[in-house]
Design goal:
5-stranded antiparallel sheet, mainly beta, 6-stranded antiparallel sheet, Immunoglobulin-like, Methylamine Dehydrogenase, Chain H
């Protein structure tokens, strides 16, 4: 949950029993902020708010090892005076509505959950949105839908075509979790990410085709892809055990539908060969 107090945004992480797990100010800049809105999946959230300079947002992440939340970098979504935003989690991206004094400022913005940078393009809407209701589809190819409800109770439908990822399992121990948000042709900022692995250890990214899968089992770990290439990215960071690899996607229509597997390997002193442990594997399909 988020709220504004004396011009600053505050937040709290609650469990299902409404016990407070962590709380405090979301410190990103000194300027006055108001009308915060947030949504997320329990591991990450996006907080949007209005300032005199425009509509801004910031990602917030839960660190399981430390039992506390940490805040990413602030991004400007819309320049100029902004009204109260609304936020909806779409599975691989967020939709953030903006409202203001002029109808030209009414828009639905598709943003990357890790950076708050644009994912899909922004879409004009007919009025200032008061509420966003989302439905994560059980069929990953069907797309994720949201209903945007305006001041008059009029509903507009929004569909996210933000890439299709399927969790194939295989993770174990402190191997962390994989992410590939906004897998969209033409996304120059497309990034493959590892989150919450063991800190300060060598990390490698295995990439392969959907078939044939390797399925190599070592204790509770399974290396799912049959790697075509394994890329070393250095050490996971000391703060959160994160690593990432940028993979800019050309704006080439023939890439739509291209599918690959990814899985992170970290050298963490296990009994598997080279002391490896694995993240979960993802199947990623470009849209």
């Amino acid at each position: 949950m988020v709220w504004d107090f004396e011009g600053q945004i505050h937040g709290a992480v609650l469990d299902r029993n409404l016990d407070v797990l962590d709380q405090g100010p979301i410190r990103v800049s000194a300027e006055a902020k108001a009308y915060p809105a947030a949504d997320g999946d329990g591991n990450q959230w996006l907080v949007a708010y209005a300032t005199l300079a425009g509509l801004k947002c910031v990602p917030v992440f839960w660190d399981e090892a430390d039992g506390m939340a940490w805040v990413g970098s602030e991004t400007v979504l819309l320049q100029g005076a902004a009204g109260a935003p609304s936020v909806g989690w779409m599975g691989e991206s967020y939709v953030v509505s903006s409202g203001g004094v002029l109808p030209a400022s009414f828009a639905a913005h598709s943003v990357d959950p890790f950076t708050c940078l644009p994912c899909e393009r922004s879409f004009p809407i007919t009025a200032s949105i008061k509420m966003i209701a989302t439905q994560k589809s059980g069929d990953p190819t069907a797309g994720d839908l949201a209903f945007l409800v305006d001041d008059l109770g009029i509903v507009q439908r929004y569909r996210a075509d933000d890439g299709i990822t399927t969790d194939l399992g295989g993770g174990c121990g402190g191997g962390g979790w994989s992410a590939a948000s906004c897998a969209i042709v033409g996304n120059a900022a497309f990034t493959l990410r590892l989150r919450e692995a063991q800190r300060g250890v060598p990390a490698f990214l295995a990439l392969g085709l959907p078939q044939p899968q390797l399925g190599y089992v070592c204790g509770p770990c399974t290396l799912v892809p049959n790697p075509l290439v394994v890329v070393g990215v250095g050490l996971t960071d000391s703060a959160h055990g994160n690593a990432e690899l940028g993979l800019p996607l050309a704006n080439t229509p023939s890439l739509i539908g291209a599918t690959f597997l990814m899985q992170w390997l970290t050298v963490a002193g296990t009994t598997c060969p080279l002391g490896l442990q694995f993240s979960n594997a993802l199947q990623v399909q470009l849209q």
